[in-house]
Amino acid sequence: MNLTDLYGRLVALIGAGTILVRHRNDGIRAQATGTAPTIPPARSQGALPTLKMPTAQGWSAGQTPTAAPGLKVNAFATGLKHPRWIHVLPDGGVLAAEALTLPGAVKSPFDFAQYSTMKRAAAVGESPNRITLLRDEDGDGTAETRHVFLDGLNQPFGMALLDDTFYVGNTDGLVAFSYQSGADRISGPGRKLAEFKPGGHWTRSILPSPDGTRLYIGVGSLSNIGEHGMAAEEGRAAIYEFDVASGACRIFASGLRNPVGLAWEPTTKTLWTVVNERDGLGDETPPDYLTSVQDGGFYGWPYCYWGRTVDDRVPQDPALVARAIQPDYALGGHTASLGLCWLPAGTLPGFGDGMVIGQHGSWNRSKLSGYRVVFVPFENGRPAGPPRDILTGFLAPDEKASYGRPVGVTIGPDGSLLVADDVGDAIWRVTGA
Description:
Blueprint (H helix, E strand, L loop, with lengths): L2 H24 L6 E2 L20 E2 L9 E2 L3 E7 L5 E6 L5 E5 L10 H12 L9 E6 L9 E6 L8 E4 L2 E6 L2 E6 L12 E5 L10 E3 L5 E6 L18 E6 L5 E6 L4 E7 L4 E6 L12 E5 L11 E2 L3 E2 L7 H6 L5 E4 L4 E7 L10 E6 L12 E8 L2 E2 L4 E5 L8 E2 L3 E6 L5 E5 L4 E7 L1
Parallel strand pairs: 2-28
Antiparallel strand pairs: 1-22, 3-27, 4-31, 5-6, 6-7, 7-8, 9-10, 10-11, 11-12, 13-14, 14-15, 15-16, 17-18, 18-19, 19-22, 20-21, 23-24, 24-25, 25-26, 25-27, 29-30, 30-31
């Protein structure tokens, strides 16, 4: 056992003691979810924030997540390396972006504690930096063939195809490649179209507009609450709009700490996103959220949360607080809601129109949350009811180990729901039972 592993175990022991104290002081609260959540008052955790993450164990042979009643799940693909995001090509090929958080600079004991914790959870390491193409050629629900579609990338995440151009969201920018229909590999050079600051929340999701004239790109913050100064956060914590024809790129909406999944609600043609909120104020404070996105809208980070609740740890900007838009739907504290896609009614039996959300799972609360795929029902273009489970069972009952962690979600070429699992190194396929 090396020094990092020993330190990780020590952090886990110290964290367990801290968690016991916080349980006694605060108790275990119900999750803050829905359009009118009950959000506990903030209680700053100071210099000793909660660190609790299960050890990455992976799946045993034949073991799968647990599907909700009326559904079944099978492994569409296994043996990948940290698959994070999924894109389906017009010819039915399924692309998986494989990338991993890189070790950051260690400047304090807490930085080392966080790194040790994340390493034990298989959440940090050498990034594969590739996109793999999977094909289910015989239609049995399992991919028989795989090819390296594109490699030599820089923490790739989002993907989009418009006409003969394939776009990739590298952590440091939007890159375009020439694409030939039906190809199993892209070999030509890429063209960088827009630059983004790397590091911190490094994922760069991509969603084309319905008419294909623009791309929307999620760019997360560098830090938790701007503790490195707001100059370092310039151009971050935002959703960008890229004009395909002109190459112009602008901030579409801001104050979004880590906007990852992006999806269109089809009846209103409104853009929606899921956002990971700040840490260090309690298990349920504030909740991660699902929200519609307004052009020019400001959503509070880092000055305030859930509308205009001020975070008194942050030097304030009253004018921006006054502009802050309250999110539409709370998803519970620290669920790490990353994946997002629209699920049309009838795709899965018993599920109407709504959004599917891949909840990667918490690492910084006393009672773990997330580690599941959930569905939020919609009516008339708005959330309309409590979240429902689609897949669970990613986390051991004692919370000590994770078999997997769901990330990207999308509708597969056969109408199934596909789920990327970056700890299980798999893509799961969900259909009717």
